[in-house]
Structure formats: C-alpha cells, structure tokens
C-alpha cells in the first residue's frame, strides 16, 4: 500500500525593514533583503513657500533577515503553514 506524498512546507523567513516585520517565503524574502540593503530612509516634505516637493534622504534602511522553521509559524486559523491565495477566477 503506498502512502500519498505530502508537499513539504515551504521554507519561511522573517524579515524586518525599519520598524515593520514580515513573514514570507524564504526565496522571496532574500530578494527583498538584497534590494533593500541599498536603500536609505526618506521623508517627503512640501515647502509651501517654494511650492515644491522635497525628498530628504536619511540613514541606511535597517534590514534584518531570519530563516524560520515551519513549526515556529502559528497562523491565526491554527494552520501550520500559510495557504497561498486562490487564483482569481474570470467572470463571464
């Protein structure tokens, strides 16, 4: 009797950018971290007297990347791993 093969849980990663935290697929998180390591914090300002937008560059962005085991992830519905969103259906 053969057993049905189960799809292994995807490797997850916890990524912090500035003061925001995200949990996503490790390969995607690595791409985000690679891109964000070259970013700097910025602020938008509008000088009313001159009537123009100004962007003020700040310090390098704080980026942190951690790999997470599937057993460490607790979903609100009680699932162990996140369920990918369903593909949109075409309406006729």
Which strand-content bin applies to the residues?
A: 35-45%
Oligomer: single chain
Largest sheet: 3 strands, antiparallel
Mean pLDDT: 82
Number of strand segments: 5
Q: Helical content, roughly?
A: 10-25%
N- to C-terminal distance = 44 Å
Side-by-side strand order of the widest sheet: 2-1-5
| Total of DSSP H or I helical runs spanning 4+ residues | 1
Written as H for each helix and E for each strand, in order along the chain, the element string is: EEHEEE
Q: Which class of secondary structure composition applies to the elements? A: mainly beta
Description:
The chain is mainly beta. The chain has a domain at about 10-70. The chain has one helix at about 25-35, and strands at about 10-15, 20-25, 40-45, 50-60, 65-70.
Give a short summary of the structure.
By secondary structure, this protein is mostly beta strands. The protein has one helix spanning 26-36, and strands at residues 12-17, 20-25, 40-47, 52-60, 63-68.
What's the structural blueprint in terms of helices and strands?
Blueprint: E1 12-17, E2 20-25, H1 26-36, E3 40-47, E4 52-60, E5 63-68
Antiparallel strand pairs: 1-2, 1-5, 3-4
What features would you highlight for this structure?
92 residues, mainly beta, three-stranded antiparallel β-sheet, two-stranded antiparallel ribbon, 38% strand
């Amino acid at each position: 009797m053969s057993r049905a093969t189960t799809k292994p849980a995807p490797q997850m990663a916890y990524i912090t950018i500035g003061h925001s935290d995200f949990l996503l697929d490790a390969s995607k998180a690595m791409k985000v971290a690679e891109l964000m390591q070259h970013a700097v914090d910025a602020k938008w300002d509008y000088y009313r007297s001159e009537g123009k937008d100004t962007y003020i560059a700040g310090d390098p962005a704080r980026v942190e990347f951690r790999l997470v085991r599937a057993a460490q992830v607790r979903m609100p519905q009680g699932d162990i791993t996140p369920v990918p969103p369903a593909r949109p259906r075409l309406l006729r």
